[in-house]
Design brief:
Elements lengths: L2 E6 L7 H14 L4 E5 L7 H4 L10 H5 L10 E2 L6 E4 L11 H11 L5 E5 L6 H7 L4 E6 L3 H16 L4 E9 L1 H7 L5 H8 L2 E7 L2 H8 L9 H13 L9
């Protein structure tokens, strides 16, 4: 039975979807079979990042509406074997309800080692739907005050949904920019303000972001890939120490 992780953020622009794609590929490198479910109705992007957008016929709404069996709406990523994508609907009106999402994920997790759910930013119904079937949550944030404040609201909502494990990833971190901004004294202050235990830090890495935008696998000797691999190991229960 697979572990279900919802990946959230307090506001858009944190690189949440790129993180989801990179983390999924890292889990595959560890030998897992991974499904990424895109729940960002009307704004889907995971299919583009994993290079399957040209093959799409069905999405998650088609499964719910009985237009196709689940297998027909799940697409393999050709560049990363054992990584699969279930796309979000193109229209917001087709957003899946929390109850139906939980039923669907309960069935799907029998066939995967990990399910990563890419959640819409904020705390709307889309976030609740994406989180309803999760065993744990990852809050993706940058070090700007607005994203950290949003983390607090999302964390409270996740608690209301009875998700027992909530972890923080600081994404797109650039030390010089962080110190120049000067809003927080150090990263400990960021973590304290976000209110969640740190899972990992992903450095700013334009080359990895470019891979995602081109639909290429986020792998190789990128700085971000090194961070994704360490985070994936922690998600698998391996005790990997946090670096200075």
């Amino acid at each position: 039975m697979g572990k279900v992780t919802v990946i959230t953020s307090g506001k858009g622009g944190t690189g949440k979807s790129t993180f989801t794609a990179g983390c999924g590929a890292a889990l595959v490198r560890r030998g897992s079979r991974v499904l990424i479910i895109d729940c960002d109705a009307g704004m889907r992007g995971i299919d583009l990042m994993l290079g399957v957008s040209g093959e799409l016929v069905f999405d998650i709404a088609d499964i719910v509406n009985g237009n196709c069996p689940p297998a027909s709406a799940i697409y393999p990523c050709k560049t990363v074997p054992e990584l699969f994508v279930l796309p979000a609907p193109q229209n917001v009106r087709d957003e899946v309800s929390p109850y139906i999402m939980k039923q669907l994920v309960t069935v799907l997790k029998k066939y995967y080692d990990h399910i990563l759910i890419d959640c819409p930013a904020g705390i709307g119904i889309g976030m609740e739907s994406a989180s309803n079937a999760a065993d744990r949550a990852i809050l993706v944030a940058n070090t700007e005050p607005l994203t950290i404040r949003g983390c607090d609201k999302v964390r409270q909502k996740l608690r209301e949904l009875h998700i027992p494990e909530i972890r923080l990833v600081i994404n797109r971190f650039h030390e010089r920019s962080f110190r120049k901004l000067g809003t927080f004294s150090d990263l400990d202050a960021v973590i304290d303000k976000a209110g969640a235990r740190l899972l990992g830090i992903v450095p700013e890495d334009p080359s990895a972001a470019a891979c995602a935008q081109k639909g290429l696998p986020i792998e190789g000797k990128h700085k971000a890939v090194y961070a994704f691999d360490r985070i994936a190991a922690r998600l698998d229960g391996v005790e990997v120490p946090l670096e200075e």
